[in-house]
Write a structure and sequence with these properties.
This protein has 356 residues and is of the alpha/beta class. Helices cover 33% and strands 28% of the residues.
């Protein structure tokens, strides 16, 4: 694997392209708009809503990384499957992942969705913690991408795709509870937790577990994923989506929220993953708790959400190229060894920059 096409050159896609270039890949980046600054790889302007426009670019590549909104990913995966190249994306959307899983049954290349932060890196960490127990009774995964200096009642800024956030807040959530796969409502199961003295609230959101419920069914009785926010956020979101019925107007809901809470440069990504069970017949608890802030990568300052997401997928792509991961079929994030991931050129940023 040498030639890779990156679709979508927002903050994450642009950084992913730069990191792939630095890791030795021949990169072509495609977006609907011309980029405002020079990039170290070739870029093209094409209509990404029309697969016929960019399909010829994939025929000349070894892999494609989609950094597009979730609803555009399935057509990209279908083209990658048809031409026999590797496919990677950052989606949190469950139906999209299931469609890609079906394609993987006959794929010549590797089909690897959910390679971002959550799902993605958080699943790699969760699997690593579970593997430390002879018998694991529960694994809880929490992630929050937040402003360092929150303002207003929401205490939030939309540094991530509004479509993705609305999708996570409104779609049903899979969990493992008492040994059964169950579907629960989003923005429920609210809990309080602290990271380095900062109070946060966590609540159910869709997609963060990826494929872990299926993987650990019959092995770990309780697994769940929640999003972390500053206190009071979830009550306001429940009011906005359900009492004001904005759940029926998703596109408009995203526009309203971004207009009210635009992106900030000084953000922080909190990761709180814990597991409990037996180690040498003694009850124990293991935790992975980090706070990731903006850093300089590839010569520019990057927001925490941008570099954690881009570094996750590029680290995995490096591992596929280097033979550490399979090169065909379907890749589950929980199959990625944490130690090997942290040793990659790009994934090592996770080891070098997390506080706590």
């Amino acid at each position: 694997m040498d030639r890779i096409v990156v679709l979508g050159l927002g903050k994450v896609g642009t950084l992913a392209g730069e990191l792939l270039h630095d890791a030795g890949f021949a990169v072509t980046g495609i977006d609907v708009r011309a980029k405002s600054r020079d990039l170290p790889f070739e870029t093209k302007v094409l209509d990404l809503s029309d697969p016929a426009k960019f399909a010829p670019e994939l025929q000349a590549a070894d892999a494609v990384l989609s950094c597009l909104p979730y609803h555009l990913n399935t057509p990209v995966a279908e083209i990658a499957h048809a031409v026999g190249i590797h496919y990677f994306d950052l989606t949190e959307d469950v139906p999209t992942t299931k469609a890609i899983m079906e394609l993987s049954e006959t794929s010549k290349g590797l089909m690897a969705p959910q390679c971002g932060l959550a799902p993605g890196f958080v699943g790699i960490v969760g699997a690593d913690l579970i593997g430390q127990f002879s018998e694991c009774r529960a694994c809880k995964m929490r992630v929050g991408a937040l402003p360092q200096n929150p303002t207003g009642l929401m205490g939030y800024s939309f540094n991530w795709s509004p479509e993705g956030v609305v999708n996570e807040y409104l779609n049903d959530c899979e969990v493992l509870e008492d040994g059964e796969i169950k579907t629960v409502s989003p923005m429920e199961w609210i809990e309080k937790l602290y990271i380095d003295g900062t109070e946060l609230e966590a609540f159910t959101t869709s997609g963060g577990l990826g494929t872990m419920c299926d993987t650990y069914l019959g092995r770990v009785p309780n697994i769940d994923y929640k999003t972390m926010r500053y206190p009071g956020h979830v009550d306001l979101m429940n009011f906005f989506f359900h009492e004001l019925l904005m759940r029926d107007r998703r596109k408009e809901a995203g526009e309203i929220l971004v207009n009210a809470k635009p992106p900030v440069e000084d953000d922080i990504v909190y990761v709180h993953v814990s597991a409990e069970g037996l180690i040498e017949d003694k009850l124990a608890r293991r935790e992975f708790v980090r706070g990731y802030k903006p850093i300089t990568l590839a010569g520019h300052r990057r927001t925490a959400i941008a570099w954690t997401t881009a570094s996750s997928v590029v680290g995995i792509i490096e591992m596929v190229r280097d033979g550490t991961l399979p090169n065909a079929g379907f890749l589950k994030q929980e199959e990625v060894p944490l130690a090997a991931f942290l040793k990659t050129r790009t994934g090592s940023a996770y080891a070098d920059h997390g506080a706590y």
